[in-house]
Sequence to fold (135 residues):
Amino acid sequence: MTTAQALEQVRTEVPELLVQAGLKDGVTDTSTGVKYYFNRIDGTKNLKEQTYVIWSINSVDVLNRADNKPKYRDAYVSINLYTTANRESQGILDLIENLEDSSIASGWAFEFSAEDHSTTDQMTFISFDISKKIQ
Fold:
C-alpha cells in the first residue's frame, strides 16, 4: 500500500465515521481548505452553543512489508472537538460517546488525548486520537 493509497483510505473513512456519529457533513472554509463538521442539535441551529469537529491525519506509518513494499500501515488521526457548550453537558457527553462508538464500529481504536479551555473565546477544546491498521 502506497502512502497515497493510505491517505485516500483515511480521507474516505474518517468523514464517514464523523457523519455516523451524528455530525453534519463537513463545510469547507474556502480560504483555508479546513472542513468543519458541525454538531446536530435536534435539527436546529443553536446560536449560543456552537460545537464542531476538525480532524487531521498525523501519520500513516509502514507496519509490515511484503516483497519490499509496504503491505500494512498504521494510520493515526486526531479528532478535535471545539464547543462553547458546557463540556460536562449531556449533549457533549453524548457526542463523545457517539464518536467513540462510530470509531470502534469502523475498526478504529479511540482514545482521549487532551482537553483545554480558552477564557478568551469561552471555547473548550477536547482532542481524541484514533488509529487503525490499514491495508
In short: The helical segments are 3-20, 90-105. The beta strands are 27-28, 35-38, 51-66, 69-83, 109-118, 123-134. The longest strand covers residues 51-66. DSSP finds two helices and six strands in the chain.
